[in-house]
Write a structure and sequence with these properties.
single chain; 185 residues; 4-stranded parallel sheet
């Protein structure tokens, strides 16, 4: 996916660019920012540092795979009896592309850890104070953040989803960061 971003930048004849990524997009962006000098700045929201998927999130992916993989396989084999599924599972199959979701979630299980020091560019890490995973990551990274290119901005009262849906509460910090001098130090 990082290579796809670079291909778009190439097609647009853009050498350096800024990325804003929320949740899965934040994960993709931080991997690219750790690998490419072309990322001039990055804003990441909704994610902790470390592995692509860890802790409760990792367990939820593993649980989802255990639940859905046999259902998807039966669907592919033509042996799935929809009536054998709960109404919630039937509804989920109707509104979600489960194989695609399983694929991108499963891929995250193999992503290596990215830490603040790995990022090559100035970074704004926006975290809602109610995003427990990201807040725990801030505490875990406290010492290494001092030596990194990462600025932390905690937005009071926001959880993971609200970091995106309450954009009016995070947009001022995003604008200030993108309009600031390219170097943090």
């Amino acid at each position: 996916m990082g290579q796809d971003i670079l291909a778009v930048a190439d097609a647009c004849d853009v050498e350096h660019f800024t990325i804003w990524g929320f949740s899965y997009g934040g994960n993709i962006g931080r991997y690219l920012a750790a690998q490419s000098e072309r990322v001039a700045k990055i804003i990441i929201m909704g994610i902790p540092f470390g592995l692509g998927a860890s802790g409760d999130f990792r367990r939820s992916i593993e649980d989802s795979r255990a639940h859905w993989a046999p259902i998807v396989q039966a669907q592919l084999d033509g042996t799935l009896d929809l009536k054998s599924l709960s109404q919630d599972d039937q509804d989920h199959l109707q509104r979600t592309n489960v194989p695609v979701t399983l694929a991108w979630l499963s891929a995250m299980l193999d992503w290596a850890a990215i830490e603040p020091a790995d990022l090559r560019c100035p970074t704004l890490w926006l975290v809602g104070s109610e995003n427990k995973n990201a807040m725990a990551s801030i505490q875990e990274c406290e010492e290494v953040l001092k030596e990194s290119k990462v600025q932390v901005r905690v937005v009071e009262g926001l959880n993971h989803l609200q970091e995106f849906t309450e954009i009016d509460k995070v947009l001022p910090a995003m604008r200030a960061f993108t309009q600031s001098d390219m170097s943090l130090r």
